[in-house]
Design brief:
By secondary structure, this protein is of the alpha+beta class. Helices cover 48% and strands 18% of the residues. The chain has helices at 6-10, 14-57, 68-87, 93-100, and strands at residues 107-112, 117-124, 136-138, 142-144, 151-158. The protein has a three-stranded antiparallel β-sheet, covered by helices on one side. The chain has a two-stranded antiparallel ribbon with strand order 3-4. Strand 3 and strand 4 (142-144) form a beta hairpin.
Length: 159
Amino acid sequence: MTRYSASEKSQKGAAAIEAALLFVIFFAMFYAIVSYSIPLLLVQSFNHAASSGARSALAVEPAVYEDSNTYIENGVKPRVREIVGNSLTWLPSSARTIVLGEANGNVRVEFDDDIGLLTVTVIYAGYNQSPMVPTIRLPGIGDIPRLPANLQGVASVSL
């Protein structure tokens, strides 16, 4: 029969309690790294897709079209949307549907005729409502990850 002193008896569960407390902290850090890296990857991909789309507008020949409105509507916008769509083919189908959609509502191509500036915006609307990595709530820490409502990338080019 093993005899324990009073100090050994009081220390029996200390390691388990410390491990449980440290697990919560390390799990929160790991989950934060994973859950923040995906939105950062998405934003950088949207910036890249918007930049590629904006650059592709320079390849559309304006002399082929009758006027500047036809040039933008029938030449530039379809070309930009095609390039943005090709840049984001790696997205999962649920995210691709939200971003590219059927009507391309989240790929905005705007042209300011006064200054000749084409702006391409790629938006993942409502990301915080349906994120790719679920949000968890940890006591004392809060929601992980805390994200904005929309993720977006923007690029501009002067035509």
